[in-house]
């Protein structure tokens, strides 16, 4: 399971995962609690996000394409000025609701910044490292354990689905567009079982080799964050907080 | 992987409501963790991972509801049937956490609200129905299938109404043309259809698993007599 990871060698990639998760979450919280009337604070955040992306050498085009995940919310943002209640203002020759305009901007700006921050984290951290980071942030072991297996088994599930499809085709089935659904529906239970039995064998093999609920990278304390790395990552939320603070005081 | 946004994004709900739901989700998850630890043995650990992976895969399918609101399969009922309510709620939460961190799907600050809707409300409603229906319905594959189907439909609709409640409490913008009743109605209507799709997938999967490996279905524990192994062999 590769996720969205981009294989590079930058200071951002080299930072331990736990400090990146902490920095991303705290920066997102600061962005979200910023009052929506503080318009230029969001411009400041955009510059900050661009700077972080540049350090991590995450291409702008890649970010733009991947941030399409929030497209439905963008539609909501553009619909709100016309749907919302409250006093009306004229904007670009259209009569729209002031509250809706702010509401739409609010969702658009905060949603986009949040997605960009998450994308930068995902682009610079492998999924395995993310789980190690969650473990080091004292996330309960049962959660990291389920997450580890989930990411492993996604590949198992995909592999079994591919093998079953090839088996069907080799027996003369000709799956196309919607007619695939029938074959899929009758096979979904079998797919689940086959993936489970393969996954169970993998799990028992791991237990036989000494697995007790944590991946070696988590309990071998090598590569854990140093104080300087924490300080380096803290610059992002601190800068965001400074932008928010000045915007509130001046605004 | 070109996923489309499924969950509540950052900035849709206001700060206090996001924070309150964050606290609710944290407290409930802490309880699920303490109960789930007792359940998670060598059989359930890989099962929990696979259920989470399966839910992750089916959540990729989604359908538009309103401008900006789309619905998708949730998987809470299937999780509750296969790994029990505690580990089931954790599985769905893990899916949501990983989607927020790895795929930027669902805002990090709205994670509490998303976990409450899909992991807590969905799984809890499903498990209550499962516990009830498995006692009432005949203990046949059909009975189990109907249980999985009904629990899925009701759980999906309950989860969608939980979002409407959150929007009523802390939506960042009031809508003029869509009253809350209309939103609730639209969400319920679409989610009944989604629930039917989800119910069929859940029913087929759970019945197949129950037929071949009944030991893997958590909801059937305690309803079955363990096989007695004696010196003469296996007694029925």
From TrEMBL, chain A:
Family annotation (InterPro entries): ABC/ECF_trnsptr_transmembrane, ECF_CbiQ, ECF_transporter_component
Q: Give the UniProt keywords, A-Z.
A: Cell membrane, Membrane, Transmembrane, Transmembrane helix
Q: Does the keyword Metal-binding apply?
A: no
Q: What is its main location?
A: membrane
Which compartments does it reside in?
A: Cell membrane
- The reply on keyword Membrane is yes
Q: Give the membrane topology, semicolon-separated if more than one.
A: Multi-pass membrane protein
Annotated transmembrane regions? 38-56, 68-85, 105-125, 230-250
Query: What's a Pfam family this protein contains?
Result: CbiQ
Quote the protein name from its UniProt record: Cobalt ECF transporter T component CbiQ
Give the organism, scientific name: Phytohabitans maris
The primary gene name is cbiQ
Automatic annotation (TrEMBL), chain B:
| Presence of the UniProt keyword Nucleus in the record | no
Per the record, membrane topology reads: Multi-pass membrane protein
Cellular localisation: Cell membrane
Instruction: Kindly give the InterPro entries that the UniProt entry links to this protein.
Output: CbiM/NikMN
Gene3D superfamilies attached to this UniProt entry: 1.10.1760.20
Pfam families reported for this sequence: CbiM
State the source organism's domain of life.
Answer: Bacteria
Provide the alphabetized UniProt keywords: Cell membrane, Membrane, Transmembrane, Transmembrane helix, Transport
**Residue intervals passing through the bilayer:** 12-32, 44-65, 77-103, 115-134, 146-169
Please identify the protein, giving its name as recorded: Energy-coupling factor ABC transporter permease
